[in-house]
Write a structure and sequence with these properties.
BirA Bifunctional Protein, domain 2, 5-stranded mixed β-sheet, 8-stranded mixed β-sheet, 16 helices, binds histidyl-adenosine monophosphate
Length: 421
């Protein structure tokens, strides 16, 4: 019988074996981040609500409709983080990391919270990997961050990830483009909500998925055609650098993102097998965000990759990335003396780096062998009174069924060698 409680609606939870995969892909990312010189941050899970209002932007769905906001016992308004970028920048500034070498290169991971309508690939508690480089305008930093994400997807064995790339301009060129776009949009046949959006956040209208709106957007002016010379040069350089690195992308002039802070380089990683929730990661520059939250001018770029959707993509592609096994050798002991000896042998195997486990509770041979099969181990290590007298254990290959006697003194080296094949 399960308890009378269930996890709250829309919470994405992981239990083994899927949780082992979840952890392993996170570890694979940690390695990519380390190789590129990014340090780890562990951040607050809730923040002053105004950080997100000012950082992410009042006009976004995330802030206007999806935040988990509550008042604490001291009457302060706090919000469970709906994303990481604003928190990362807040922490970098608070801890004066920007007074050291620039860019500040950091990454973090954990749960984020958005009160969305739950469905496959869209949750209210979900998980991101977030990486940010703060304090440099150099387009090499843009390309470096994109490459880290692309390398990670590749290291997982994903082959169908698409990179959609755009530039959203800067505070010099975007206002004029925005006005131009508004003029265009005001002439269309749109419903009331969309007309309101034209006035507040016209770029978002370009992202409308409804066919009736899409048709009318065919002739809309595009930011790409209205970039100032500096933004154009930046964008061209990023594309050249991606080409140098052998990273394929698709120029996507209609790409806009759901958060307000973006400037210049913006991109999304998309997976064609995931249906409506195909955005498996996204990021871009946010050169004005520091000032928006009361900090000094400090350009930045980074991304957030959705762990939940990445797992779904791995499953959809049938990619063979696997977590390291939790059990490689399983001890089966027959009798009290053997059990005590096995307990120490298992500890020895673990010290030697072999994932080892054993049957507990004085199980008989049949029950213990069933546990061995269930454990997923490649080998069972069987020990009876006779074996102890002979100074050996029986090592059974559980797939092939072959069994050999191995001297107890050689057990660790023999298993290490066999498991490495
Ligand atoms: P975002 O596009 O809002 O960007 O989220 C990044 C990724 O998180 C998405 O591509 C998606 O895979 C995943 N995600 C978002 N919402 C959900 C959800 N409700 N359920 C499951 N997965 C979800 C950001 O959050 C920015 N902070 C990224 C960034 C970092 N930009 C610059 N630096």
């Amino acid at each position: 019988m399960s308890s009378s409680f269930r996890a709250p609606k829309g919470v994405s939870e992981y239990v083994p074996p899927r949780a082992d995969l979840f952890y392993a892909i996170r570890e694979a990312f940690a390695e990519q981040a380390r190789l590129a010189g990014y340090g780890y941050l562990e951040l607050a899970v809730f923040e002053d609500t105004n950080l997100f209002r000012r950082g992410v932007g009042e006009s976004t769905d995330v802030v206007s409709k999806e935040m988990y906001t509550f008042e604490d016992r001291g009457g302060r308004s706090l919000t469970l983080r709906p994303e990481f970028t604003a928190s990362v920048l807040r922490s970098v500034l608070e801890n004066n990391l920007h007074k050291g070498a620039l860019p500040v290169k950091v990454w973090t991971t954990g749960a984020a919270f958005r009160a969305e309508r739950p469905q496959q690939g869209r949750y209210r508690q979900f998980y991101q990997l977030d990486l940010e480089a703060i304090g440099s305008e150099d387009p090499q930093v843009d390309a470096e961050t994109i490459a880290i994400a692309a390398n990670w997807y590749r290291s997982l064995g994903l082959t169908q990830v698409r990179l959609l790339l755009n530039s959203l301009g800067c505070k010099e060129c975007r206002p004029a483009y925005r006005a131009l776009l508004q003029d265009f949009l005001r002439g269309l046949d749109l419903d009331e909500d969309t007309r309101a959006r034209v006035e507040i956040n016209p770029l978002r209208v370009l992202d409308d998925k409804r066919p009736k709106v899409r048709e009318q957007l065919a002739g809309a002016p595009l930011m790409a055609d209205h970039l100032c010379p500096a933004c154009k040069a930046h964008h061209d350089r990023v594309r050249e650098l991606l080409a140098d690195l052998g990273i394929a992308w698709e120029d996507t002039p209609t790409l806009v993102r759901g958060l307000d802070y973006y400037t210049r380089t913006t991109y999304e990683f998309d997976h064609p097998l995931l249906g409506a929730q195909s955005g498996i990661g996204g990021g871009g520059r946010y050169d004005g965000l520091s000032e928006d939250i009361g900090g000094p001018p400090l350009p930045g770029i980074g991304f957030g990759l959705g762990l939940d959707r990445t797992i779904l993509a791995l499953e959809a592609e049938g990619a063979d990335f696997a977590a390291k096994p939790r059990c490689e050798a399983f001890g089966v002991a027959l009798g009290d003396t053997a059990e005590r000896r096995m307990f120490a042998l298992v500890a020895d195997l673990r010290r030697a780096g072999i994932a080892a486990d054993m049957a507990f509770g004085g199980k008989k041979l049949k029950g213990a062998m069933k546990d061995a099969d269930r454990s997923g181990a490649r080998y069972a290590v069987i020990l009876g009174e006779r074996d102890i007298a002979d100074g050996v254990a029986q090592v059974k290959d559980l797939a092939a069924g072959e069994q050999t006697a191995v001297p107890l003194t050689d057990l660790t080296t023999t298993l290490t060698e066999r498991l490495s094949k």
